[in-house]
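[job 4471] stage=fold_predict status=RUNNING
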Amino acid sequence: MSPAECRYLSGAEAHVGPLKNTRLYKLWDQLRSSYWFLPTVIVALSIGLASLLIVADHRYPFDQTSRSSWLFLGTAESARVILSTIATAMITIVSLTFSMTIVVLTLASSQFGPRLIYNFMRDRNNQVALGVFLACFVFCILILRSVKSDVAGNFVPQLGTTAAMAFALFSVGTLIFFIHHIADSIHASRIIANVRNELELIVTRLMPARSGTGLSEETEWQRLMDMIDSSSMPIAARDRGILQAIEEAELLEWAQRHDLLIRLYHRPGAFVIRGTPLFEVYPRERVPVDQLVLLQDAFRFGNKRTLVQDIEFAFQQLVEIGVRALSPGINDQFTAM
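[job 4471] inference complete, writing structure tokens
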């Protein structure tokens, strides 16, 4: 194993890495790259808004003779027609949005590489558009449920129906923006620029300070290797999968507290098999065996590569775009350049 393939975390380190809470950052990255979190938040807000407007309509009813030009003053039947029409249109738009998103993901995967799906999933504009359409549908359903016209009495949610009409107009504008954005997002220059921006962000986040001791001289590395190999304790991985992140701050703090040295066998982005050596601790005789579980918990595994700590992933995305552009099936020299 070469010096570049090893990482050393020593108790003599006086500082920790720049990314101190990898667990929360990984959770945020998973939520950001999902198509359910942000739409769910927007739908929840629409449910709260619908409930507030229904309560306001009950407590502060408007007179039917009011001349407010912006307020809906129709009957219960007309309110039902308007709300049901908007709800039907919104669920149709949601289906269209899903279809267009799947088409774009398929095109990006075949044209630029499957690794770029991760970047498209992180696109917040698509998530917001989907959330707005779903929120408008749920909002109209809740307002429609409150409309009453029976022997017990009539209730027309004037504020709620007016808000539903405004919500529908806003959704139309969101649909126009979504169509423009989804068409612009598959341009090769736009995709490359997005990957470059992600690369700059991760380099800025991870590289402002060193979080371990790198050994560049062959003699120093060989001397340390001989010393560690003779009296170190290898620790096996409890999980399998792609190593997505390492809690370097926790490892450094633990090594400093016990005056030990930790050698990492893998860096984020590598696939690790359960039971294979994950890291080793030197010297063996001073290792508190009862705390090794805490060290193993500092390694975060998953099923896919992410940009939490995996800098090579962004480089590989750019390389894959260039390699595919030069393939005989695509033959796009300008994209490769």
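[job 4471] summary: The beta strands are 7-10, 148-150, 153-155, 233-236, 241-246, 261-264, 271-272, 277-282, 299-302.
[job 4471] exit 0
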